[in-house]
């Protein structure tokens, strides 16, 4: 039996992030999970500034190597992220790291014409279009050996007046200087409105969207209703009941609404249910 531990790091106001920790050689046979909470902590210098960098407590993830000294590896996700595939799918990328890589992220964009970093950033960033930090595999053991936090603090001191997206920009700057430390995972593991709001640019999602990220409030907006419909289907699902009857069928029914079909992201709605179809349809028919 393998074990997945989920931990929410909490502040007085609200949870800031979720990490998923696996203990064991593989997560394909996970039978057990647990949940725990850990208090928010920041460096004593500039604590208030770190707490409010970008969004309240968002920068906490930068200090996980020291906050969780007993943890070897974890999967960090923003609180506006939903899984449309087993956690084991993304976790498998840890085993693809070479000896120097200590983290994995998806690209911030796939198209230079509508990318953000290549058009607007006032600081260095990773690669051609930068990376998005909403889903991040973190090998904390390697980060501690690399002395991750000793790199983070001077980056913040130098660039704090030039960053827009807080901790994500700091991560981009770090990997600009240390590109050998980063593994890039495909965009279907951090699928965002930017991938479909103008045109479909995440070509690998044709095999199914694995993790969907409703950043900028898209889970609660009708700008691209596909994101809201998926969120509502998961919110209404009662754990322990049939996912085929009570999640997949209602979601498929909702996806035929005219306002979804008329939207740009609605054109890829089949990709959002592809994994669930494969997982549930044979088991529950």
TrEMBL record:
Gene Ontology cellular component terms for the protein in this record: membrane
Membrane-topology descriptor: Single-pass type II membrane protein
A Gene Ontology biological process term: protein O-linked glycosylation via N-acetyl-galactosamine
UniProt keyword annotation of Disulfide bond present: no
Swiss-Prot/TrEMBL keywords: Glycoprotein, Glycosyltransferase, Membrane, Signal, Signal-anchor, Transferase, Transmembrane, Transmembrane helix
Localization, UniProt: Membrane
InterPro entries reported for this sequence: Glyco_trans_8, Glycosyltransferase_8, Nucleotide-diphossugar_trans
SUPFAM superfamilies for the chain: Nucleotide-diphospho-sugar transferases
Entry's EC annotation: 2.4.2.42
GO molecular-function terms, A-Z: UDP-D-xylose:beta-D-glucoside alpha-1,3-D-xylosyltransferase activity
Secretion signal span: 1-29
Class of the enzyme per the UniProt entry, highest EC level: transferase
Main location as per UniProt: membrane
Catalysed reactions, semicolon-separated: 3-O-(beta-D-glucosyl)-L-seryl-[EGF-like domain protein] + UDP-alpha-D-xylose = 3-O-[alpha-D-xylosyl-(1->3)-beta-D-glucosyl]-L-seryl-[EGF-like domain protein] + UDP + H(+)
Entry keyword Nucleotide-binding: no
Domain of life: Eukaryota
Gene3D superfamilies (UniProt xref): Spore Coat Polysaccharide Biosynthesis Protein SpsA, Chain A
UniProt record similarity statement: Belongs to the glycosyltransferase 8 family.
Function: Glycosyltransferase which elongates the O-linked glucose attached to EGF-like repeats in the extracellular domain of Notch proteins by catalyzing the addition of xylose.
Protein name per Swiss-Prot or TrEMBL: UDP-D-xylose:beta-D-glucoside alpha-1,3-D-xylosyltransferase
Annotated organism of origin: Drosophila lebanonensis (Fruit fly)
């Amino acid at each position: 039996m393998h074990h997945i531990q989920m931990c929410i790091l909490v502040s007085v106001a609200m949870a800031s992030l979720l990490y998923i920790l696996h203990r064991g050689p593989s997560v394909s046979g996970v039978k057990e999970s647990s949940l725990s909470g850990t208090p928010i902590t920041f460096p004593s210098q500039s604590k208030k500034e770190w707490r409010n960098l970008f969004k309240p407590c968002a920068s906490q993830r930068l200090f996980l190597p020291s906050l969780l000294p007993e943890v070897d590896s974890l999967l960090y996700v923003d609180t506006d992220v939903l899984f449309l595939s087993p956690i084991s799918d993304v976790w498998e990328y840890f085993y693809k790291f070479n000896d120097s890589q200590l983290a994995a992220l998806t690209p911030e964009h796939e198209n230079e014409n509508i990318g953000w970093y290549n058009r607007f950033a006032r600081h260095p960033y990773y690669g051609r279009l930068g990376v998005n930090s909403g889903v991040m595999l973190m090998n904390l053991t390697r980060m501690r050996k690399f002395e991750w936090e000793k790199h983070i603090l001077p980056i913040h001191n130098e660039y704090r007046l030039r960053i827009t997206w807080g901790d994500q920009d700091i991560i981009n700057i770090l990997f600009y200087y240390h590109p050998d430390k980063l593994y890039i995972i495909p965009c279907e593991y951090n699928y965002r409105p930017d991938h479909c709001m103008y045109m479909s640019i995440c070509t690998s999602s044709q095999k199914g969207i694995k993790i969907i990220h409703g950043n900028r409030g898209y889970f609660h907006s009708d700008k691209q209703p596909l994101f809201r419909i998926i969120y509502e289907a998961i919110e209404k699902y009662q754990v322990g009941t049939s996912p085929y009857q009570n999640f997949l069928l209602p979601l498929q029914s909702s996806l035929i609404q005219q306002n979804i079909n008329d939207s740009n992201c609605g054109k890829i709605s089949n990709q959002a249910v592809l994994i669930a179809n494969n997982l549930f349809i044979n088991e529950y028919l």
